[in-house]
Design brief:
5 helices, globular
């Protein structure tokens, strides 16, 4: 459950940092999670690079399967293109954690998240308290 909370926290931080709103989820060419990849990859990648291996694994494990009624799946983000066969485990974990964060952002922005992840209040939240406790 701590990993799910961290996933939501990072997603909310990126939404606030980039200044996203639900209208940013579609531009006619892409929609949903793929649109967020276009807009947020550099910010999410920067946050992911700071995380420990164990935390990366926990975030990756939060990613949803292909067809999930609970929200966006990892596949919806990048169609499972997690690097080449020459990449190491840490690189693959980073890619999967990245995709899990993007999927969570899509869910928050689409209003599909539950409880404390309600869309209302995103803009008013304090995004200054980062992920330092989980970082290297």
């Amino acid at each position: 459950m701590a990993a799910r909370r961290l996933l939501c926290q990072i997603a909310m931080e990126v939404i606030g940092e980039v200044g996203l709103c639900p209208e940013d989820l579609s531009d006619g060419k892409f929609s949903g999670a793929q649109m967020l990849v276009e807009k947020c990859t550099s910010v999410v990648s920067r946050k992911v690079r700071r995380l420990r291996d164990g935390t990366l694994g926990e975030l990756a494990a939060c990613g949803r399967k292909y067809v999930s009624p609970e929200g966006s799946s990892l596949y919806e983000v990048t169609q499972c293109s997690w690097g080449s066969k020459y990449d190491g485990g840490r690189s693959k974990l980073r890619a999967m954690a990245h995709d899990a964060i993007i999927a969570e952002m899509a869910d928050v922005l689409e209003g599909r998240a539950r409880g404390e992840r309600e869309l209302e209040g995103i803009r008013g939240m304090n995004f200054q308290h980062g992920i330092s406790a989980w970082a290297e």
